[in-house]
Write a sequence for this structure.
C-alpha cells in the first residue's frame, strides 16, 4: 500500500510539472524543432496538446536549419514534418496517462501519426501515415520514409499530451513507391522490371500494400529472357502483398498473405530472421505513402519454401511451377 501511495504522489508531481508541447520543447533545448510546430498548421499543435499518450519524436539536429531556412522550407513541409513526428501510442485511451521510460526500453511497435494528407498517404480509409519503432542492436530505432531510420538518443520528457522522445534527426516524410525504390541502387533490377511491365503505376496507387523487393543479386541467377511477358508479370506480382501493410512488428510466424499474383506468401519468423516463402528479408520497414517495402535476398516463389538456407536457383523452382502450370 505504501508503494501505491508513492506512485500516486509521483504521478501528482509529474502532473504538476507538465506543460504545453512548445514550452516543454523550448525548456529542453529543442527550440528550433518547436518552431517547426509553430510554423505548421495550428490543428497539429492543438491535437498534440489535447492528446493523450502522444509521442513526439523531437530532434535537436534540425539539419543545420535556422529559422529563416525553416520558413523557406514552407509551412506545408513543416506541417507534414510536425504531423509525421507526432504519433499516438494508444488510439483508444481516454485517460491522460503519463509515462516515462528509460531510453533503452523499446518493444517493436507500429504507431499511427497525425499525417493524413491524402496527397501523400494512401493506407486505406481513416488510416494515417504510420511508422515503426523497434530496437536495432538494443538501440530504439524509428523507421520512417526514404529508407531512413533515426535513433532514440535520450529519455522521454513528459508534456501535457504525452512525451517528447529525443531522436538524432528529423523523420523523413514517406514518399511514393517509385521515388523510394529509386533511392536504393541495389534494387535497380526490380525497379526497372516494375517499370518495364507497367506495374509501377498500379502498385503505387494501391492502398495499403507490402512490397517485397529482391536485391539485384537475386536476379543475377535468373534467366528472364525465356519467360513470356505474362510470366514476368506473374513473377513480379508475387512480390506485392495486397490489402495488408506488413510492418515488421505485425508479422507472425505462419501468417499467410495474399499477393497481387493471386497467390499467397507464408511468413516465417526465425531467430535468424524473417522470411517470405523462403526469401530472407535483408532490410525491413522502408515506409512509403501506401504501405511498406522490405528488401529480400532472393526472388519470392509461389510456395512456402520453409528452408531458410535455400539457394537462389531453388527459390525460383516453385515459381516456375506456378508460371508453367
Ligand atoms: C526560432 O524561433 C523560435 C520561436 O520563434 C525560437 O524559440 C528559437 O530560439 C529560434 N531559433 C533560432 C535558432 O533563432
Ligand atoms: C489522423 O490525423 C488527423 C489529422 O492530423 C487527426 O485528427 C486524427 O486524430 C489522426 N488519427 C489517428 C488515429 O491518429
Ligand atoms: C539487372 O541489371 C543489370 C545491370 O543493369 C542488367 O545487366 C541485367 O540484365 C538486369 N537483370 C534483369 C533480370 O533485368
Ligand atoms: C488475378 O485474378 C484476377 C481476377 O481473377 C485477374 O483479373 C488477374 O489478371 C489475376 N492476376 C494475375 C497476375 O494472374
Amino acid at each position: 500500500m505504501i508503494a501505491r501511495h508513492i506512485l500516486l504522489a509521483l504521478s501528482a508531481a509529474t502532473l504538476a510539472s507538465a506543460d504545453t508541447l512548445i514550452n516543454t520543447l523550448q525548456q529542453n533545448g529543442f527550440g528550433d524543432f518547436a518552431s517547426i510546430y509553430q510554423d505548421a498548421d495550428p490543428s497539429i499543435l492543438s491535437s498534440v496538446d489535447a492528446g493523450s499518450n502522444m509521442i513526439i519524436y523531437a530532434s535537436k539536429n534540425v539539419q543545420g536549419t535556422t529559422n529563416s531556412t525553416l520558413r523557406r522550407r514552407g509551412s506545408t513541409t513543416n506541417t507534414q514534418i510536425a504531423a509525421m513526428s507526432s504519433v499516438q501510442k494508444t488510439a483508444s485511451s481516454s485517460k491522460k496517462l503519463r509515462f516515462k521510460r528509460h531510453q533503452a526500453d523499446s518493444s517493436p511497435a507500429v504507431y499511427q501519426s497525425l499525417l493524413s494528407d491524402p496527397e501523400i498517404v494512401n493506407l486505406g480509409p481513416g488510416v494515417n501515415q504510420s511508422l515503426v519503432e523497434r530496437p536495432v542492436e538494443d538501440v530504439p530505432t524509428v523507421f520512417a520514409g526514404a529508407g531512413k531510420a533515426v535513433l532514440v538518443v535520450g529519455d522521454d520528457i513528459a508534456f501535457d499530451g504525452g512525451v517528447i522522445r529525443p531522436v538524432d534527426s528529423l523523420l523523413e516524410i514517406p514518399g511514393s513507391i517509385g521515388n523510394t525504390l529509386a533511392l536504393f541502387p541495389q534494387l535497380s533490377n526490380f525497379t526497372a522490371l516494375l517499370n518495364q511491365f507497367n506495374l509501377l503505376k498500379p502498385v503505387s496507387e494501391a492502398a495499403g500494400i507490402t512490397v517485397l523487393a529482391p536485391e539485384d543479386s537475386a536476379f543475377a541467377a535468373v534467366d528472364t529472357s525465356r519467360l513470356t511477358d505474362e510470366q514476368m508479370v506473374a513473377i513480379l506480382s508475387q512480390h506485392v502483398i495486397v490489402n495488408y501493410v506488413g510492418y515488421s512488428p505485425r508479422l507472425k510466424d505462419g501468417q499467410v498473405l495474399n499477393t497481387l499474383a493471386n497467390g499467397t506468401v507464408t511468413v516465417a519468423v526465425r531467430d535468424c530472421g524473417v522470411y517470405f516463402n523462403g526469401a530472407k528479408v535483408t532490410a525491413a520497414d522502408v515506409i512509403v505513402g501506401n504501405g511498406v517495402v522490405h528488401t529480400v535476398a532472393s526472388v519470392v516463389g509461389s510456395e512456402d519454401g520453409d528452408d531458410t538456407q535455400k539457394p537462389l536457383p531453388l527459390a525460383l523452382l516453385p515459381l516456375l511451377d506456378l508460371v508453367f502450370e
